[in-house]
Amino acid sequence: MPDKVGPAEQQPLRKTPSSDDGIRLKKDLGLLDGVAIIVGVIVGAGIFVSPKSVLEHSGSVGQALLIWISSGFLCLIGALCYAELGTMIPKSGGDYAYISDAFGPLPAFLYLWVALFILVPTGNAITALTFAQYILQPVWPDCPAPYLAVRLLAAVITCLLTAINCYNVKWATRIQDIFTGTKIFALLIIIVAGLVWLCMGNTENFRQPMAGTNTDPGHIALAAYAGLFSYSGWNYLNFVTEELKDPYKNLPKAICISLPLITIIYVLANVAYFAVLTQSEILVSDAVAVKFGNKLLGVMSWIMPFFVACSTFGALNGAIFASSRLFFVGARNGHLPTAIALINVNNLTPMPSLIFLCIITLVLLVIENVSSLITYVSFVEAVFTTLSVSGLLWLRHKCPDLHRPIKVYIALPIVFFMICVFLVVLPCYESPWEVGVGTVLILSGIPVYLIFIQWKRKPRWLVAASHELNMTCAKMFMCVHESKAD
């Protein structure tokens, strides 16, 4: 809830000795950092485990590869559309900022609502759990690691990365750069090993690539969901636009470098999987990369669990860094408690936002089957991506003279919008329960908005509680409000 106390009461939060130089998030991210964030967030656990789901719904190797290619192409189109949005509306917060400018505060708050409690912390929890499972695999090689050990390690790594992001932005981006290189190296090992296997004449898995193809539109949409899950995070750089050096140039450059690179690597990695493993072997495996390593790499097969752990470590770091800015911007706009919009005076990081996100992620780690939320998350994410790109089309009509440093060809957002509608509508027939739950999650934010945002004459005790939370966070974390731009 936004703080409604008078300016005099807020004064201690705004005036500190160190605020003379301007307390705000600094533009420390260059082009390489932007590429590392996109690649680092996208290449998480998905490419090492998702090929099973894509193949299961596709029915054939040929169609599965087409899904991987089309998913990458779709994300590239979407990222280019977001490049126009990000340079036209140069604010951090990504979809939240674009939906707010196009359609007003309520739809933007609904996105923030589901992102706060479902989209972001669920993704972070799943990534942390995947890291823990793979890093513990050498300790329990013949059986799954104990439930408590996995949860405890996932919690520790979440807290560690949150602390690093709280302390120093450059440390966080250096970690991102290093682990992005590590995960690309892991995928290159898979690609080279698979291509060598193919060159040795092992082509039997590609002799009838379209045999068993599933042409049902609903299953095609579900296969696309599985593929897009591995590409998820392509819009995370838009969350940190305000911290990007020369965003008009570096945002589109980072997108145009990252997405084609990831698509090529993903497709070649899947060719390697399909060359070495049969369809039945892939469909019974929950960790395709590990099965690939066990079959082809021999005594070096241990490197696959290690590299998957490195991959998820980097993905979690990038997600924590970028998504915390989303909640920072939401609080700055009055849609979350004001305390979340505070900045640490020494490190110039949104420390309360990072810690708040960490707490929610830790709560989700307690849920035994947090992975079951993935289907709900995919639908909800598709809904708001559709809303964001429709906002681009609406702003083209509503504000044709608005300054657009980047203006994509109009056919791109139209095509992207139509595909997003397809991905939203078709699962309604194949997975009506998941769609229903996702819709309820979105709509549950409406009463919250009406009570805590829209309602102006709030009880004094509620206003006092909000102010007390704000003051406590400011003192505890040595934070102040962001300085106004000159």
From TrEMBL:
Keywords: Cell membrane, Membrane, Transmembrane, Transmembrane helix, Transport. GO terms for cellular component: plasma membrane. It is found in: Cell membrane. The keyword Aminoacyl-tRNA synthetase does not apply. Gene3D superfamilies: Amino acid/polyamine transporter I (1.20.1740.10). It comes from the Eukaryota. It is a multi-pass membrane protein. The chain crosses the membrane at residues 29-49, 61-83, 110-136, 148-167, 179-198, 218-237, 257-276, 302-328, 348-367, 373-394, 406-426, 432-452. The keyword Aminoacyl-tRNA synthetase does not apply. InterPro entries: AA/rel_permease1 (IPR002293), AminoAcid_Transporter (IPR050598). GO terms for molecular function: L-amino acid transmembrane transporter activity. It holds the Pfam family AA_permease_2. Residues 1-21 are annotated as: Disordered. Belongs to the amino acid-polyamine-organocation (APC) superfamily. L-type amino acid transporter (LAT) (TC 2.A.3.8) family. This is Large neutral amino acids transporter small subunit 1. The lineage of its organism: Eukaryota, Metazoa, Ecdysozoa, Arthropoda, Hexapoda.
